[in-house]
């Protein structure tokens, strides 16, 4: 019952702009092809295709007529019945003064940029302006994108509340959750959600306006959406289906959007909202605490509370665990006295929590009041969404829920207990009802203190803040080039962010900002945070864009384009993985670089695009549905993406006793590894079999810290693997509803034939990491003894003594990565049977004789070392959902 796809004709007209010199067009071509269903293509499909296309065209015409009749252009003023106190509060917001100007600009232009200081009312008010002007009443709805889930949820509730409308009308949609109904008129969503919708309906027929909020954050998906929408809006208007685009930013730095000729031929108008900002005095620390900035934040907050006049305190830290730890210490230092607290937290009084409360009171008598905030049911950490939608700013794998009392005693800060401090945490994974508390006034007589991550920097404005404590750091996502996995690291923030944070103190009156670092450090900060797209690998992005039928990714109007080499090499990797069609070979020589610039996606590529992992691993998942291999492939991919699952035992010992202890552990662990590696086929799966065996054994006993400790496994890594396995299982089941992969963490060891299949799947995914042992007759130099040749390096690489394949020395192996200690070693290895190579990696093979029946072949990958083999293998194309392997 899917709507017929109609993107072909619509999008082909995107390319009819002036084409000047090739590769230098002002309005670049963005070719988008008719989307092929990611299913097995039948032979007969070619014949039925023509008929189908006509069918599609007809329905599209009907759709167009229907939309025209409704007409998206606003006609009437839609009254909103607001409560008087709400109306009064609204009138104080700076953006209200600009309503006329904004609405005029929106009427006159397809795209408008709106800049306004955080808290000026952009997010909550602009959707209301558009609603009142009738933009949601003529056949289309108002869509608002946020880079963070917390903002999407909280803003939808706030706006529903302000407009006196139900959440069925002002709704939200985040990856796995939402309350959108058929009556929805204003829809808040994460940028990732809208991107997925573009995949289904390129022209976004159901929207009359799209607001891209928080554009200054420059999240990858926001950037891509702006690029796409610049075209979508132009196309919609050309087709007489008007649509508006509003880009909202908290900073004035919008030239990447407005001055970018690739994006908009005529620069969109920029409207500035002047916010009343009271002066904020900035205080720098003399010294910069390098490690323990949370302790410093705690001390500073205590001082402010004891010594300075009333006014809310906002503390900026980097992640959930830090926030909780500082909240705990503050509550300990400034206990509540319950009869002082008129605010009772009604939402927390469930039986369950009462029980915990009792238990905890028993356990730690010294605790004056139980901080129920720490028990808030944290939503499941679905980091895959974060990876897809690029939202999560403060993810933290440390959930500090129940442990208490491990904090150092805060003797020096015994404060005057007569002034209550109302301490609230705020971070993006906090339950919505907990988040909502920061917007309510604190209990009478108490001072509000919000300990937050950088969600409070621009997405959420907390009323009544007079003091800001800024640790100067931010948790940023870094990408591992090998695994494509993102990890979060704490780094210095930018000057622009630090100033945003300071600004939070001057919204209602003059305020103070205490920076926990010196002015010298501040002047070393980068001026602005750079666009995320320039500091992450792009192979997964290119795949996502191809899945959107964007052929020439290099020509895509990125607000800040990634470097073209990165795009070309991403495209080449995707071609070699079979995710994109190979460029046609003209004669013998192909200019791969030129030819690979506009390769369309293959059905395999579409299947891969559905998985939230780097393309190499996505390919393994896409091929995992054979012989019941999926649970194993999921585990292997999870284990490969979690780094360092084994305890490091090669560290130098400080004394003899430790050294002998280490040696003992090492002996035991290598014995375990041998056990997990198994025999026969299993052994040939190599290090990956060891990972599989470790996870299998660990889950068999229920993944206990004790088991991990005894067997040299890192407990945290094992928990992470478990989490990832759950997520990937869900993703696989969502992609192929009939896959029916079980979430059971326990699994029996794979059979011999399953292991053979697993080895081939791994080869198919890691194909460009193929290495071949240098044969005795090829030995040029003694340094090559037992060495392997790889396509990337001129030097030999070796099998590490700790590898399961150390004694095997197989002729061909694939590896996950190369690391260097005394020599260069391969990590994460698996042995490969030579005759699989022409079948699974035909792109890397040179065939003599007709391709369909090659007489012999050699692999061009393993350093051009010829390895002639009589072969009867054909070049096989990928067939999905399942291809048959040996
Ligand atoms: O988007 P922008 O930063 O320009 O401002 P906003 O998020 O629309 O916030 C406007 C005002 O509404 C601020 O003063 C917030 O404190 C307030 N607000 C609120 O009281 N409760 C919410 N749930 C959301 C916003
Ligand atoms: Mg906002």
Automatic annotation (TrEMBL):
Positions with biased composition (Basic and acidic residues): 33-55, 340-354
EC top class, as a word: hydrolase
GO biological process: maturation of SSU-rRNA from tricistronic rRNA transcript (SSU-rRNA, 5.8S rRNA, LSU-rRNA)
Catalytic activities: ATP + H2O = ADP + phosphate + H(+)
Region (Disordered): 1-55, 338-360, 376-417
E.C. no: 3.6.4.13
Domain Helicase C-terminal as annotated: residue spans: 348-549
GO cellular component terms given for this protein: nucleolus
Residue ranges occupied by any Helicase ATP-binding domain in the UniProt entry: 103-270
Alphabetical keyword list: ATP-binding, Helicase, Hydrolase, Nucleotide-binding
GO MF annotation: an example: hydrolase activity
Acidic residues bias locations: 18-32, 391-413
Family label: Belongs to the DEAD box helicase family. DEAH subfamily.
Protein name in UniProt: Activating signal cointegrator 1 complex subunit 3
Naturally occurring in which organism (per UniProt): Tachysurus vachellii
Classification lineage: Eukaryota, Metazoa, Chordata, Craniata, Vertebrata
Complete-protein stretch covered: 165 to 1050 of 1151
């Amino acid at each position: 019952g899917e709507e017929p796809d109609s993107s072909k004709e619509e999008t082909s007209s995107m390319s009819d702009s002036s084409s000047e010199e090739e590769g230098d067009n002002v309005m670049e071509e963005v070719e988008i092809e008719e989307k092929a269903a990611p299913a097995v293509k039948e032979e007969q499909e070619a014949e039925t295709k023509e008929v189908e296309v006509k069918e599609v065209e007809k329905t599209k015409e009907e759709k167009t007529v229907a939309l025209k009749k409704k007409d998206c252009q606003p006609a009437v003023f839609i009254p909103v019945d607001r409560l008087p106190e709400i109306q009064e509060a609204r009138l104080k917001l700076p953006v209200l003064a600009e309503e006329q100007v904004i609405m005029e600009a929106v009427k006159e232009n397809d795209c408008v940029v709106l800049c306004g200081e955080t808290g000026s009312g952009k997010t909550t008010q602009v959707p209301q302006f558009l609603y009142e002007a009738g933009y949601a009443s003529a056949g289309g709805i108002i869509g608002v994108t946020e880079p963070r889930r917390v903002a999407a949820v909280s803003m939808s509730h706030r706006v529903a509340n302000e407009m006196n409308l139900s959440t069925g009308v002002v709704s939200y949609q985040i990856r796995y959750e939402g309350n959108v109904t058929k009556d929805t008129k204003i829809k808040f969503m994460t940028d990732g959600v809208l991107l997925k919708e573009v995949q289904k309906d390129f022209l976004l027929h159901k929207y009359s306006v799209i607001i891209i909020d928080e554009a200054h954050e420059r999240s990858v998906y926001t950037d891509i959406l702006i690029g796409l929408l610049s075209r979508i809006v132009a196309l919609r208007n050309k087709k007489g289906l008007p649509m508006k685009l509003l880009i909202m930013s908290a900073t004035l730095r919008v030239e990447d959007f407005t001055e970018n000729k690739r994006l908009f031929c005529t620069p969109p108008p920029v409207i500035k909202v002047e916010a009343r900002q009271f002066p904020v005095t900035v205080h720098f620390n003399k010294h910069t605490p390098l490690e323990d900035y949370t302790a410093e934040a705690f001390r500073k907050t205590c001082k402010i509370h004891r010594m300075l006049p009333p006014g809310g305190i906002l503390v900026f830290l980097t992640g959930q665990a830090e926030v909780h730890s500082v909240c705990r210490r503050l509550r300990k230092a400034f206990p509540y006295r319950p009869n002082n607290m008129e605010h009772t937290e009604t939402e927390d009084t469930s039986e369950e929590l009462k029980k915990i409360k009792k238990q905890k009171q028993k356990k730690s008598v010294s605790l004056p009041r139980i901080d129920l905030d720490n028990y808030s049911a944290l939503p499941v950490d679905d980091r895959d969404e974060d990876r897809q939608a690029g939202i999560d700013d403060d993810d933290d794998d440390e959930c500090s829920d129940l442990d208490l009392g491990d904090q150092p005693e805060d003797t020096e800060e015994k404060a005057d207990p007569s002034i209550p401090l109302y301490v609230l945490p705020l971070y993006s994974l906090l339950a919505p009802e907990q988040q909502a508390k920061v917007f309510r006034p604190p209990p009478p007589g108490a001072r509000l203190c919000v300990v937050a991550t950088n969600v409070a920097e621009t997405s959420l404005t907390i009323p009544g803040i007079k003091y800001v404590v800024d640790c100067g750091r931010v948790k940023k996502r870094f990408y591992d080039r090998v695994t494509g996995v993102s990890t979060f690291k704490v780094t210095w923030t930018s000057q622009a962010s630090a100033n945003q944070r300071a600004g939070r103190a001057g919204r209602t009156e003059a305020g103070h900002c205490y920076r926990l670092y010196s002015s010298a450090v501040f002047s070393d900060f980068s001026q602005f945070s750079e666009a995320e797209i320039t500091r992450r690998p792009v192979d997964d992005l290119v795949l996502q864009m191809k899945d959107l039928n964007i052929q020439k990714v290099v020509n895509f109007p990125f607000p800040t384009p990634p470097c073209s080499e990165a795009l070309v090499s991403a495209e080449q990797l995707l071609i070699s993985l079979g995710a994109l069609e190979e460029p046609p070979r003209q004669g013998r020589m192909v200019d791969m670089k030129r030819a690979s610039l506009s390769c369309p996606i293959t059905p395999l590529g579409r299947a891969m695009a559905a998985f939230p992992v780097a393309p190499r691993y996505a390919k393994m998942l896409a091929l995992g549905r054979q012989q019941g291999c999926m649970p194993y492939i999921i585990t292997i991919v999870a284990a490969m993406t979690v780094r360092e699952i084994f305890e490091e035992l090669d560290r130098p010992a400080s004394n003899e006793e430790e050294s002998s202890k280490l040696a003992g552990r090492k002996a035991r662990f290598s014995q375990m590894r041998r056990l997990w590696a198994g025999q026969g086929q299993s052994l040939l799966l190599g290090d990956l079999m060891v990972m599989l065996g470790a996870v299998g054994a660990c889950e068999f006993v229920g993944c206990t810290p004790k088991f991990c400790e005894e067997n040299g496994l890192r407990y945290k890594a094992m928990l992470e693997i478990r989490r990832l396995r759950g997520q990937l299982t869900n993703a696989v089941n969502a992609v192929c509803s009939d896959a029916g992969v079980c979430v059971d963490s326990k699994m029996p060891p794979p059979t011999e034939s399953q292991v053979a299949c697993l080895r081939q799947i791994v080869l198919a995914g890691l194909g460009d990491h193929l290495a071949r042992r240098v044969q005795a007759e090829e030995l040029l130099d003694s340094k090559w003894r037992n060495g392997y040749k790889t396509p990337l390096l001129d030097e030999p690489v070796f099998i590490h003594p700790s590898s399961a394949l150390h004694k095997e020395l197989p002729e061909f192996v694939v590896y996950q990565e190369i690391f260097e200690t005394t020599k260069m070693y391969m990590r994460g290895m698996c042995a490969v049977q030579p005759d699989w190579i022409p079948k699974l990696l035909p792109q890397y093979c040179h065939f003599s004789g007709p391709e369909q029946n090659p007489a012999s072949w050699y692999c061009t990958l393993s350093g051009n070392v010829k390895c002639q083999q009589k072969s009867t293998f054909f070049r096989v194309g990928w067939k999905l959902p399942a291809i048959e392997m040996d």
